[in-house]
Design a protein that fits this description.
This protein has 343 residues and is α/β, with parallel strands linked by helices. It folds into 2 domains: 160 residues, Medium-chain alcohol dehydrogenases, catalytic domain (Quinone Oxidoreductase, Chain A, domain 1); 148 residues, Rossmann fold. 27% of the residues lie in helices and 22% in strands. The chain is built from 10 helices and 15 strands. The strands form 3 sheets. Strands 3, 4, 5, 6, 7, 14 and 15 form a 7-stranded mixed sheet that branches. α3 packs across α4 and α3 crosses α9. The protein binds NADP nicotinamide-adenine-dinucleotide phosphate (NAP). NADP nicotinamide-adenine-dinucleotide phosphate (NAP) binds next to α1, α3 and α4. GO terms for molecular function: oxidoreductase activity, acting on NAD(P)H. InterPro entries: ADH-like_C, ADH-like_N, ER, GroES-like_sf, NAD(P)-bd_dom_sf, Trans-enoyl_RdTase-like. It comes from Calocera cornea HHB12733.
Length: 343
């Protein structure tokens, strides 16, 4: 039996009480949209930030969530690339409550949806869309990295050039490590020691503890004189300054995932703000980033974030949001199975 149309809903601005399930009517679909019956949804930091800092919540009740994995339930007008029953993952647009993830069905845009091969579980698939797109768009738009497009061989031949990922165990950082490696770079990264083996398994050549007072000089020594590109997937608590200081080449660029201050750039190292929006603003980058995603999934080359399944399905999200607020997410993605929800 199909699940009911229920959404974990925000009912007041800056809501402090647990979000509750609210019924909704089956949404109508516009050109290029599909209705996805969600099997698993995943959490990103923006979900709790949106609630606590009260942004992008234009009306109430509202729904947040950017990561969806499930099956195509219905096709909207003009949709040809998908059929009912296809397994998919989708980067939810969040432009209306029905376009968000934390509900039983999500209206997805075909431009932001790819097929999910059976070699990935829905839970694994749900960890990918938002963080992967943020990683890929930032590499291309902010750092000028040309990702190898299919049918080009993946990984691309080694460039013999270093690339630093600040925060390699974060959800975004884990995809940056993999994509930079696929583009032919020798990847250095930072993470807590308990996550070093994980980051190495993603393709990094060396991982450094960012708590170490000498971390920058150790990175510089390991990188040699040609480190010009850094993806800072943290961009707070001094990581931008440390990323800038790690550049050893005569000039360089740091992609910052949160808004940098102008004074964080130097004469030789430019800090460039990035984000998932870069894949929407530039259609060419967007289609390349999603195209490579399909190729990486088909060959089972992309390693999803480790799944931390939170009990309770959609209602468990209240607990997960709190873990996010308390910065208790490390080297894993909080995932919720719709079937675990008590409706
Ligand atoms: N602009 C956008 O479009 C966009 C998109 C996605 C994310 N973001 C933002 O990017 C940030 C990361 O998101 P996420 O989903 O990747 O986060 P996440 O996976 O929840 O981040 C947790 C990870 O951050 C690492 N970390 C924390 N502080 C660090 C530091 N000072 N240096 C290095 N690593 C550190 C931790 O590493 P250890 O446990 O190993 O210490 C942990 O594994 C968030 O602020 C998020 O809001 C922005």
């Amino acid at each position: 039996m199909s699940p009911p149309f229920k959404a974990l809903s925000i009912t007041e601005h800056k809501q402090k009480t647990p979000l509750t399930l609210i019924d909704f009517e089956e949404p109508s679909l516009a050109e290029g949209e599909i209705l996805i019956e969600n099997a698993a949804v995943a959490q990103n930091p923006v979900d709790w930030k949106q609630i606590d800092y009260d942004f992008n919540i234009p009306s109430l009740p509202w729904v947040v969530g950017g990561d969806v994995a499930g099956t195509v339930y219905k096709l909207g007008p003009g949709v040809t690339g998908f059929k009912v029953g296809d397994r998919v993952i989708s980067f939810a647009e969040r432009k209306t409550a029905r376009h968000s993830a934390f509900q039983t069905y999500t209206v997805g845009s075909v431009d932001r949806t790819v097929n999910l091969p059976t070699s990935y579980t829905f839970e694994e698939g749900s960890t990918i869309p938002l963080a992967y797109v943020t990683a890929g768009a930032g590499l291309e738009a902010a750092l000028g990295v040309v990702l190898p497009a299919p049918p080009a061989a993946l990984p691309a031949p080694s460039k013999g050039e270093p690339f630093l990922v600040w925060g390699g165990s974060s959800s975004v950082g884990a995809f940056v490590v993999q994509l930079a490696k696929a583009a032919g770079y020798t990847v250095l990264a930072t993470a807590s020691p308990k996550n070093h083996a994980y980051v190495l398994s993603l393709g990094a050549s060396a991982v450094f503890d960012y708590h170490d007072a000498d971390v920058v000089s150790k990175i510089r020594a390991a990188a040699g004189p040609n480190l010009s590109l850094v993806y800072d997937s943290i961009s707070e608590n001094g990581s931008i300054e440390a990323s800038v200081a790690s550049v050893t080449a005569p000039s360089g660029k740091v992609a910052a995932i949160l808004p940098p201050k102008p004074e964080q750039s130097t004469e030789t190292v430019k800090v460039v703000q990035t984000g998932a929006i870069r894949a929407t603003e530039n259609a060419e980058i967007g289609s390349r980033v999603y195209g490579i995603l399909s190729a990486l999934l088909e060959t089972h080359t992309l390693i999803p974030n480790p799944v931390k399944l939170i009990p309770g399905g959609l209602l468990g999200i209240n607990e997960g949001l709190q873990l996010g607020r308390e910065h208790k997410v490390s080297g894993e993605k909080l995932v919720y199975r719709i079937a675990d929800t008590k409706f």
